Amino acid sequence: MGEVTDIFPDRKTVKTSTGDIIAYDLLVLATGSDAVLPTHTPGYDANGVFVYRTISDLERLIEFASNHKGETATTVGGGLLGLEAAKAMTDLEDFGKVKLIDRNKWVLARQLDGDAGTLVTRKIRELGLDVMHQKRIGVRPRDELGTTAGIQCASRGGFVINESWENQTFGIIAPGIEMADVLAFNLTNPDKEPRSFRRPDLSTKLKLLGVDVASFGDFFADRDGPKFLPGRRPSVATIPRVKDTTEKESPVKALTYKDPFGGVYKKYLFTMDGKYLLGGMMIGDTKDYIKLNQMVKSQKELEVPPSQFILGAQNGGEENGDDL
């Protein structure tokens, strides 16, 4: 049947590379994205330049590494995949040195704030990885079909949709990854109550290049405003973040612990009254991840003061200092 080359929204048909014209009642756009190479840079298509998206990409990289032992390898991107790729190239033990180039001021910028990301950057540098910041390549949404057909797309790429994943062009739907599961259920079960998309849980706990990293709940609530506040949590992703730009005081308070000697950083975010935990991030010491993540999900009022999350339970009375 070939691949779709054109969309005709006014006729509700699509054309394929084999010339077939196919009519539709509802068109689901699930085109994904492509890894972007810097085509303006000489040598972008040279032997030894790889993207990191498919199994065949990895097989080509492994074969190249085995034939170029001792040379320098460079990974572009300091997100989860970029750090995984850098770790994979380090584990191959074929390269003499591995460098990491990232467009942000610190690695894992989508999961960590500046303090946490800077700490992770320092720790992976100590492991021998050369990190360079504020250089970019990235991925590009596959929205060429929509652009050609006059379907509304975002300025940075991708289809513009509403809370039901519908584009302004009637009959066209463009879900994201988590949205696709709900959409598939709704399309294949017309006799059942439609499911609604809930915000995905972006909590993460992993070990990257030997560094324990975790983020849970609404870990950027202090920066972007909370996604929800206890007592008025939205059931579907139709309500924007709770943020009033006219307010002088954020509805969130942060409790932070830094240990530069042990390489530990913790930041926990609470409601203003300290009664509810909203989210947080941890570097170096992540042993409380499961417990804290469950507290966020349950949204129960805390039984201990926020300080106890960092300091632990304190004994009463004043220490005399004899044990120092």
Automatic annotation (TrEMBL):
This protein's source sits in the domain of life called Eukaryota
Q: What InterPro entries does the annotation carry?
A: FAD/NAD-bd_sf (IPR036188), FAD/NAD-binding_dom (IPR023753), FAD/NAD-linked_Rdtase_dimer_sf (IPR016156), NasD-like (IPR052034)
Classification via SUPFAM superfamilies: FAD/NAD(P)-binding domain
Residue ranges annotated as transmembrane are none
Q: FAD/NAD(P)-binding domain location, by residue?
A: 3-136
Q: Which GO terms describe its molecular function?
A: iron-sulfur cluster binding; metal ion binding; oxidoreductase activity
Matching entries from Pfam families are given as:
Pyr_redox_2
Pathway this chain belongs to: Nitrogen metabolism; nitrate reduction (assimilation)
Q: Write down the required cofactor(s).
A: siroheme
Q: Does the keyword Nucleotide-binding apply?
A: no
Q: What keywords appear on the UniProt entry? A: FAD, Flavoprotein, Heme, Iron, Iron-sulfur, Metal-binding, Oxidoreductase
The molecule here is called Unnamed protein product
Give the organism, scientific name.
Aspergillus oryzae (Yellow koji mold)
